[in-house]
Amino acid sequence: MYSLGIVKRNIVRADPAAVRELSAFGAATVHEAMGRVGLMRPYMRPIYTGAHLCGTAVTVLLHPGDNWMMHVAAEQLQPGDVVVAACTAENTDGFFGDLLATSFRARGAVGLVIDGGCRDVKDLTAMGFPVWSRAISAKGTIKATLGSVNVRVVCAGAEVNPGDVIVADDDGVVVVPASMAMQVAKAATAREANEATKRAKLASGVLGLDMYDMRPALEKAGLKYID
To answer: What's the predicted TM-score (pTM) here?
Structure first.
């Protein structure tokens, strides 16, 4: 059950050093390094190609068609934060546009992840303000119902707590719990190094069949080659 009408002003953000390390990696690498957990549903898409962000979550709980709490959240932002907005029921209205983006950026936010709609895409793209959203919609919203800021939310199927690390790019959005941030950063670094070695072998012409020693298992499974 969500708590409504609450704004938590003092949250514990993930270790800045871990955030910096994680910022070097894409969502897929971080997701794999964390054991294939923390991934938001694939309908969450960036509003423009090539967007990437890594930062600490300031969470927002919205009600359908009402973006009041987005304005409340702006006051709680610190440099390097990502606004993560969930909704109490499925909704695709345009909760966010270039004016809120201007406000968020002035406070130091590096982007938005919202399980709802976004509009003013042309302006946001020109600003270089990255947004991952459920939908794009010109439909406006009202300001009438209290939600909450900096409470635990479930955004696009993933649990997000204030201060968690959000990594997002063209492949999706991943949530790294603040307590695991450095551990996941180290695992991502190791994974990236391992993949670099594999990439070099594949580029030289080595087949994945041999690099991963797949042939015995394929033979056992009954694969036959016919000339």
So the answer is: 0.94
